[in-house]
Amino acid sequence: MVEIFKALAEESRLRILSLLLENDMCVCEIENCLSLKQSNISRHLSNLKASGILESYKKAQWSYYKINNNFIQENQELWVYLEKRLKELPSYQEDYKKMKKCKSENICNCLI
Amino acid sequence: MVEIFKALAEESRLRILSLLLENDMCVCEIENCLSLKQSNISRHLSNLKASGILESYKKAQWSYYKINNNFIQENQELWVYLEKRLKELPSYQEDYKKMKKCKSENICNCLI
DNA sequence: TTACTATATGCTCATTTACTCATATTAACT
DNA sequence: AGTTAATATGAGTAAATGAGCATATAGTAA
Q1: Which of A66, B14, B26, B62 has the least C-beta neighbours within 10 A?
Q2: Which of A77, A86, A89 lies nearest to residue B80, judging by beta carbons?
Q3: On chain C, which bases lie within 7 A of the protein's CB atoms?
Q4: Domains and CATH numbers, chain B
């Protein structure tokens, strides 16, 4: 349990999770939406994956990250809480807009 | 939300919360149950209080800490999750036994 | 093959955090 | 007033963490 809370105890990681509520995303899309360095995002994603919150898959050169279904199953109350609260993050509206734009304009050439 | 997760991202603090599921406790009782230094416990308690998870009150020379009812109200799903998972901490059974012993023997002379 | 793109990772630096000791503060009791 | 007990806090230290740069790795495409 501590590992999960450690993963959740960082604002950038919460912002990443808030984007993944709606879509799977690749690293460069997240980079584009959150304006953080690529290496930084990659490490945050590794962290979230190591804690069991995310899983990943590859398509061509892109690594996609998504919410881990096992995590949702095994942490249902926490997940309900997160789904509600992630949308209340101060940066959520803006991040969400960028995500929509990024997806609709296929900014990374990585549309699934 | 980050502040709450930061407070929860530390094992000693989770152990403290697990003890407080059943009773309010004073600092020296917690010290007795968890075998941590008094200053250390005092700081963890301050941290949990600052994040809104605990509240405190004084009786004579003792400071009692308890789960903050507002926190429970405002974070219901998270609280349900915590109530379940705190009891699954590896140290829980042992900590719980010590808490029971501490309360029944009135080790700090601080029984309410 | 070579060049290019996306991602992961080694390294370093700065910041934060947890721990400890010593001391201050507060309350109770003689 | 002086002593004792409980708690909080200042200061120092060590460890963990996040950020950034440079580079390695892996997959694609020419």
Answers
A1: A66
A2: A77
A3: 5-10, 17-22, 26-28
A4: 2-69+78-100 (1.10.10.10)
